[in-house]
Write a structure and sequence with these properties.
Structural class: mainly alpha
Number of strands: 0
Number of helices: 11
Helix content: over 70%
Oligomer: single chain
Shape: globular
Distance between the termini: 37 Å
Largest sheet: none
Length: 273
């Protein structure tokens, strides 16, 4: 019991220190986002062109196979883009948070710098780009005569949920990356697998129930499905109680492990860079 209380107190102190650094986190996140594109001739335009190009390719490759002729079904381009932007936020941020501490190794020897904010900075930096892509998504909706509703605001819940999961994983993977760089290659493989088992360009119809259960264990399913629920199907997240409980339980596990591993390895970071 004493151990649990001690861990709880340490966790509260850990997050309090992070909250105290909120201004620095925002400043570094903004600067990181700008630096990603400042050297490119088209600047921030690449934040839109890159995902759009891939979505267009997917659309032409899979529209004949997966598109529906039912006028009451979600237009395939909308279905595809909703799923892809959710997955893209997950995959790019996962890689970013994993290398966040390594990429800022010059800060490790600064005594007063809170290294724990670096995965958060990387996550927020990608979130800015995601905001630009969401604007494009809204334009696609309007072109398809789909108009705003109160359910659209729910997407902020799913973005917040994904950010908490990714930062939790980031504290774990970014800490390990300094000692075991191969973890980035492992994450690349995992990311590719998740792309194909997440219903981005295909749907769950026609899949056996027992197989559906396995696919729903993928946390990105919860987010991609949530984007579609928010923008098209008009379903609140609490109408999926088991999926919501599972997602947040998994996130809590990663959070506990991530914080524990980060605190354990933090004193040795400067020795391996």
């Amino acid at each position: 019991m004493r151990l649990i209380i001690q861990l709880f107190k340490e966790a509260i102190d850990f997050f309090y220190q992070l909250f105290a650094q909120r201004s620095l986190i925002f400043t570094l996140s903004t600067r990181s986002f700008q630096q990603q594109y400042i050297r490119n001739a088209f600047g921030f335009v690449w934040a839109v062109l890159d995902p759009m190009a891939f979505v267009v390719i997917l659309y032409f490759v899979f529209s004949a196979r997966f598109a529906s002729n039912d006028p009451e079904q979600m237009p395939f381009i909308v279905y595809l883009f909703c799923g892809y932007v959710a997955y893209e936020l997950f995959s790019t941020t996962l890689l970013s948070v994993t290398s966040s501490i390594h990429n800022h190794s010059f800060l490790l020897k600064k005594v007063n710098f809170k290294v724990a904010i670096l995965p958060i900075v990387s996550a927020f930096s990608n979130l800015f780009m995601h905001g630009v892509v969401l604007v494009v998504l809204v334009v696609i909706f309007l072109i398809n005569h789909l108009y705003p509703s109160i359910y659209w605001f729910q997407v902020f819940y799913y973005i917040f949920s994904l950010m908490v999961l990714l930062v939790s994983i980031g504290w774990l993977t970014a800490s390990i990356y300094l000692f075991f760089p191969d973890i980035r290659n492992i994450i690349n493989i995992v990311s590719r697998v998740l792309f194909f088992i997440t219903p981005i360009f295909w749907n769950m119809e026609g899949i056996l129930p027992q197989h559906q259960f396995i696919l729903k264990l993928n946390p990105v399913f919860y987010i991609a499905n949530g984007y579609r629920d928010s923008f098209y199907y008009e379903v609140w997240f609490w109408q999926h109680p088991f999926l919501t409980i599972y997602f947040w339980s998994l996130t809590l596990v990663f959070l506990m492990i991530g914080v524990a591993v980060f605190k354990k390895l933090r004193p040795h970071f400067a020795d391996v860079v």
